[in-house]
Amino acid sequence: MKTVFSPGQLAHDPKHEISDGELRPAVEIPARAEMVRARILETELGEVLTPEDFGRGPLARVHDGDYLDFLDSFWTRWTNAGRGGEAFPFVWPVRGLSLEPKPDHIDGLLGRYSFDAGTPLGQYSFAAARASANSALTAARLVAGGERSAFALCRPPGHHAAAGYYGGYCFLNNAAIAGQWLRDAGAERVAILDVDYHHGNGTQSIFYERSDVLFLSIHADPREEYPYFLGHAGETGAAAGEGYNANYPLALGADWETWSNALAAAMARIRDFAPDTLVISLGLDAYEKDPISRFRLASEDFTRMGAALAGLGLPTIFVMEGGYAVEALGVNCVNTLAGFEGG
Ligand code: 6XA
Ligand code: ZN
What we know:
The protein is α/β, with parallel strands linked by helices. It contains 10 helices and 10 strands. Strand 2 and strand 3 form a beta hairpin. The mean pLDDT is 98. It binds 6-amino-N-hydroxyhexanamide (6XA) and zinc ion (ZN). 6-amino-N-hydroxyhexanamide (6XA) binds next to loops.
């Protein structure tokens, strides 16, 4: 399986994040990608390609223009305000507050275009996110061109980013951008299965009213886990998209037996939908030793996951999402991909 990765993705190099109510060392760091790339080379999974630049077009098919403009202008606005280093929002337009008119001040804009305070935004975040999206797009093009599968080594990740806001370490929704690009390239139906420990709220919201993209997510119950405000089983889609969204929230502590039952249910839905192409939002944070998560998948379970997914027999793009047990990340990621190839 070919991998797509750009060194430009490493330029987003946050030092801190706000989590557990305090300023802590960042966990979504460049070393994550380095570990995965090293394991791919070590195991000779396949070639590692540099992405092509697809420009703004495919990003704007998923994200709002004003949101992309905000990301583009952030650093100038931030430094013009006398700031430097990483930015964190601290005020949001919730319940009854107004989205319009948009604030002029950068502190207002940060809240206007985000949904959490846990995502450091720095000078090179948008450039790195664009490079990450280009990796997903290049992987999509490989599969559209006839490859059975491809791996987009995306980081920063994407599945929490919605059309108009960032959060959860995500700025551009790589899986959604790839999925939409596949539609535009001729696929009639695309399924996106999100196996990250956290619900893919951004991807869900982007496709919630559409029947051409089926979104499914297996994740920790949002009653107990981030992102808290989306990901319940009762969210099944709306308008034309009714019936085209499927959530499988699981209790904290879920092991492979529980997790794989949800996978079997999700795969049955995918078979019924009969998509042209499958996009896997490949989070590795369901791992038992992940420092921020509470599922109990072992490294060998990722091999099982990959083998099971191969059983769908679909052209498949893997798009990396979360996973913070950095030492094991390469093993768990390549186990999934190699499991798919052997399955
Ligand atoms: C809150 C946790 C952010 C979750 C990021 C993630 N700081 N999402 O792994 O998939
Ligand atoms: Zn996650």
